Amino acid sequence: MTAMVLVLAPGIAHADRGGGASQGGGTSETSGGREGANLVSKVVYSGSTSGSGGGGDGGGALKPVGDWTPPACWYEPRSAEQFRDYVESVYKETVNTPGQHSYAKQSVGMFREDYKDGTYKNYNLDKKDEGSFWVAVRDEDRRMEPEAQACDRMPFWVENGDPVPVENAVTPEVLAELAYNRVRLPAAEVTLRPEAATKVNLPTWAWLDRARFKETSVTASIAVGGLNIQATTTARPVSLRLEPGTPDAETYPASGECTINADGSIGEPYTRGKADRTPPCGLKYLRSSGDGTFTLQATITWDISWTGTGGAGGDLPDGTFGNDQAVTVQEIQAVNR
Question: What number of CA atoms fall less than 13 Å from residue 136's CA on the CB side?
Fold first, then answer.
């Protein structure tokens, strides 16, 4: 059934990533239907979701720390009626398309036959209340990655209450991992003083306001084929890392890692009277940027946890998100008399 893999392989089903939403709002919901020969995921996302376009406010998605990545493909259930409708519509579309190659028609016919009159009888409609078909779905944004092709098992039937005999069958934990990939974070642009341009050897204060950097979360849920589960993934800011963009600079603290304050802010705003103090979070450039600028990279580290149906929960790998800022550094001009 090699040709059939090209038409109906479970790895080609996909999950839409819905439009972005600002922090604290918005719901991204897939249709749960089909596009051409593809099934669409029935997972629904709500909360501070990240759209594939990245949004226009400079915000973006988490980058996991380490080698871990959320699933690029997974398995979801479909009722007997839903699966029948899918197979029959693809069959009709394929055989009725003008110019369709004969091997495609033959392959889709063989696929349909297996579920209609072969291994399964009439799509198991006579026991539709006893179980579901499980189909593979992939994240369309990652369709070219090898991991997206790992869910390669053809659709299969599972009786209610039986374990699903594949890795990445959708569970609260898998939903939490999928939600991780859709958390939208605010831009990590720090406030600097001096603001317009700093001076060589002059400490520059840096801080982030607590109102902008607060806990944010996304909930992923699915209700299909007798399965009704959900999970909420929550990101909490824990630190800010400053990378000056040149080795000729020092950071405060020396590690460049500014931890979060008790009130949720990072760093300390500069006010009059602090000129002789060392900033708790900041940097000092040791040479001028000349006619250009240095690229300051500010990266927030977020602690990630999740809770889900049945009291499940735990931790997921930390994530980061950062922005680049152009910083002008000028020489201090001395006047000789």
Answer: 25
What is the spatial distance between Cα 191 and Cα 266, in angstroms, rounded to a whole number? 10
Write down the pTM of the prediction: 0.84
> For residue 50, what pLDDT is reported?
59
Q: What separation in angstroms does the CA of 311 have from each of 76, 160, 225?
A: 21, 21, 22
Containing H/E element for 104? helix 102-116
Q: Are 75 and 154 in contact (CB under 8 A)?
A: no
Of the chain, the percentage scoring pLDDT greater than 70 comes to 84
The answer to whether the CB of 59 falls within 8 A of the CB of 41 is no
- Extract the runs of DSSP E, i.e. beta strands, from 200-248: 204-208, 216-224, 227-243
Pairwise CA distance, residues 162 & 147, whole Å = 26
**Average pLDDT of span 323-330:** 93
Q: Identify the burial level of 165 via C-beta atoms within 10 angstroms of its C-beta, where 0-12 means exposed, 13-18 middle and 19 or more buried.
A: exposed
